[in-house]
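hey m, so remember when u said the tokens were messed up on ur end? i reran from scratch. heres the input so u can diff it against urs
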Amino acid sequence: MKGGIWLVFLAALVASIYGTALGAEVSINSDTYLKYFEDTSGNSYMPLYEYLSLSAGSSTGEGVSFHLGGYLSQDIDNTLYEKQTDTNLQYGYIGYLNKGAGIHIQLGRLYVMEGLSPGQIDGLTGKKTFGPLGVGLFVGDPVEDPDATVKADLTFGGRVNLTGASYDIGLS
């Protein structure tokens, strides 16, 4: 999926242009990692990773925001991975936050922390707080490991929690 990384770069460019025009705060981060290591047999490996993340929204964090992050991996010596080049969209979602009303909604590819086992979904999450009491729900398609033997079509769940100064008790 060589075109995937170009999609990430195009989204970053469009968000920075429109974000500036709309008065939104835009953040683009890029991290490059070059690793070199040898296994116990003496074989050497040199993978290269490029991680790109983009966020656009108000400086207070409230209102509508956009978040995107993914990586490109390049196996320089072509011995470590089956594919020499690979891309992966880690997250890409639109969010809405209203701190005063205690509402937080996210739609897209995102990480869910509202159930017993955190995971990544293509779906929707919503959280509502009522003072120290919070309710969170999620629904979506699980983002599967391509090597997984069991595939799920839909996942959903939720969490009710009570938060204090030094504790957070929840039921999933």
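this time it looks ok to me. Residues 99-172 form one domain. if urs says something different then somethings off w ur setup not the seq
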